[in-house]
Amino acid sequence: MQKPTPWHWRSFINPARSDTKNNNENDSRGLTLHHWVRGEGQYDRDQDGTEVDYAFAKFDTKALNETLNTTEIAKTPNPVDLSETERGWTYEETRYLFELCSDYDLRWVVIYDRYDYKSPQPRVMEDLKERYYYVMYRLGQSTVSNSLSADTNNTIPAMNAVGMSSSPSPLFPREAELKRKQYLERLLQRSPSEVAEEEALVIKSRKLEAASKRMLAERADLLHLLDAPQASASVNQYQSSQGLSQFASSLLSADKNKKKKISKVAKKLSAKEEAAYGISYHDKLVPVGVFLRSSKLTAFKPAVAAKVAATLAELGVPPKPVMPTAKVCAKFESVLHSIGVLLEAKKQVDKLETELKILKSKK
Amino acid sequence: MASTSAPAIYGGDEVSALVIDTGSSWTRVGFAGEDAPKAVIPTYYGMRTTDVRNESTTEDKIEDKDKDGDLEMKDASPENSLEQKNTKKSRFIGDESLHLPRSDCEIISPMEDGCVSDWDAITEIWDYALTHQLRVDPTEHPLLLTEQVWNSQENRKRAMEIVFEEINVPAFYLAKSAVCSSFASGKANSLIVDVGSAVASVTPVIDGLVLNKPACHTKYAGDYLNGKIFDMLVEQNVSINPRYLIQSKTQVEPGQPSIFKRKSVLESMKITESYHKFQSKLVLEEWKETMSQALPFAYTGAEQEEPVYEDRLFEFPDGYASVMSEVRFKTTEFLFDPEIIEEATDFRPASSTTDFIRTNEKREITMEDDEVKSDTERETTADKPLPDNTIAKTSTDANVIPSITATEAATAQPSIEGAINNEFSAPGRRPHNLGLSSLIIDTINSCDVDVRSHLANNIVLTGGTTLIPGLADRVNNDVQAALAGLKVRIYAPGNTIERKHSAWIGGSILASLGTFHQLWVSKKEYEEVGIDKLLEKRFR
């Protein structure tokens, strides 16, 4: 079994505290607090048993580098640079701004909220930002020119040429920022009905987008459908009826695979359109595959067929329709049917007439 | 105690700090790192001034007699007395001692506008809480106090002096209560809507720092509602007999006059008006807590379907019971439109918000009118003889029970303290009324446009008055309607402890964080650096 680890009530000093930091040289220590420590703790202790380091001290960070705070501004070789009177900035106000910046770690909303300097003109947040970035830029400039030889100055004029002439700060687009906020402001001021309308429009446009996408896909499908199969082999194989039926069955199976897609594409045609395109629907698939419509015409018994052919010849109609469209075939079929019926009737009449003659002659 | 169980996640390191959150009606005291205050005591005290020359013995006799009359009164109460010339002043602090009826004992609040105004009293209340409730030696523990955003510089100085010189703590921190509430809800960016008893405040918090300029507060909070409920009850001819008057009561049918027996022991005592008022307030608060409800939308009357008002029975301490329906909602409506009654009575057209300046001028005029109006109303209600549904009224005029007048309502003078500084002073941007929803809307709109979405998305409701059913929905509906471009989300924890004591809980979290310990102001710093500099640099 593990030995229980004892907890100790230990005093500690926090190196992150300003009173600890500043009082290192003299004997006094900063604020000493107490907490419970498991086991021996992880930090060294001085002769009083006080921990001299603290786990949370490392979180004491600053957004602004210490060297870039107010002391740096004061040390700038040419402070006159910083008190340029654009928008009425003075050296004192700049220092005040930089103090706030380091106090509030460049949280501009908070800095602007706490900004309470009697400046000659009212400041907006963009003024503060512009001033800050401008001064930082100038500070960088002066340190560069101080520390490096004259030839490095080439880069600085280049930077100057970019924006210095038009705006005091090449780094912060004050006007653009103000404009952006104005736009945002206007965006937020929409009334509920405007917002609802806009939302409805967005939904509508999304729907349209989706519809156009779908339409494109359908069109692609159709085009694919219309694409003739590439003639890879010689045509000879299709010249025999066997080859043709093979081709037909292969088309049919391809059709079956595509059937779903096609049914999606197909739209309901009116009777007129169906007639125009010659489209007909079959209750069941014809197993033989491709066939000629004329071969499906009613066939008569050989004895009758000769008579029918004779009748057709008599009427000046060819034995098979010249243009076997569905309509023509149907008509032809009805003609054949009528001929059949009439021939039958004639046969009966003839039969009866002969019978009548025989009976009469018997008298 | 076991703070290192998961320090990597929570960053907690407890140094046994104390946290005190002093509100307008309740003071919360406890240890940092705990999830609820150990003690919650009223921020009121009883004050009895007795003339020492006038034989203090008689006073004692009466006290003895009282104690004979009621055993419960023997509860030992810490009495802190100060000698002042010929008069003896005794303060009574704490729940048990405060509600005990005493002759000539005034009930006084040491708070004004959410901030401390009577430092001697508040020191005693804190001392009572620390030594009698928590039973700790404050000189051993760092202390975190909460303060309101609008706390004055003198007040903050005074707090620091008292904490270091009278309470004698080793380390101290003064945290903004809005920041604490924000931490309690686990947010670094939020809009804290704190509706307590005396003050309703709306404060934006960005990265754990309050924004002072857009923050605002009004007096249209719980106490104001109490006043309106009282007015309503007076209108319905209900007289309020607080619990302390009642010896026994008989069950009566709803609407029938009450039958009860007064406590005979009170006849020989001189109960002060403030005590009676304080006790009556408890009845009003009970009414508020059980009956009040908020409508989902403002009911303007025109072209709107009449909302469905649900009936509910309320029994007063004297046995009188009444079924209330519409008034349950109408009284809450004053929170959202504090001027509603004046407008209704005057038949004044609704003030237009088309012109910024005109709206403002009009507002001022109506405010003056309102004050005059409410004054006259007050007189008339005071003159109006109360219906005698109190039967067992003894003829002895020795126990003059002062009837409370509508001065409750007088505590709520229409005033807006927090300067609403408007960067983009668009017309109609100022709140057209001082109701809760328009304060929220106005505060959001006066913040930088880049943070508005964060604020609207993190509206935190806190304070006891926000527990009124339907209030969160109402605020949500109002704010969403006004800020259509933003996504509004209301954070209103269902846990009443979290809602009532959020500032304390946030302070508790703050003071138990390992990273917080570098922020404490030590006694040595107080002595060496000086108050002004510390206040400016350390408590922000």
Automatic annotation (TrEMBL), chain A:
Domain DNA methyltransferase 1-associated stretches: 197-362
Keywords from the named record: Chromatin regulator, Nucleus, Transcription, Transcription regulation
MF annotations from Gene Ontology: transcription corepressor activity
Domain DAMP1 SANT/Myb-like: from-to ranges: 54-139
Main location: nucleus
Keyword set includes Transcription regulation: yes
InterPro entries documented for this protein: DAMP1_SANT-like, DMAP1, Swc4/Dmap1
Pfam families registered for this protein in UniProt: DMAP1, SANT_DAMP1_like
Stretch forming the signal peptide: none
GO cellular component, one term: NuA4 histone acetyltransferase complex
Family that this chain belongs to: Belongs to the SWC4 family.
Designated name of the protein: SWR1-complex protein 4
Gene source species: Nadsonia fulvescens var. elongata DSM 6958
UniProtKB/TrEMBL annotation, chain B:
Biased composition (Basic and acidic residues): 51-77, 373-386
Catalyzed reactions: ATP + H2O = ADP + phosphate + H(+)
Matches recorded under Gene3D superfamilies: 3.30.420.40, Actin, Chain A, domain 4
Superkingdom of source: Eukaryota
Region of interest: Disordered: 51-88, 351-393
Function: Actins are highly conserved proteins that are involved in various types of cell motility and are ubiquitously expressed in all eukaryotic cells.
Family: Belongs to the actin family.
The protein's name: Actin
Taxonomic source organism: Nadsonia fulvescens var. elongata DSM 6958
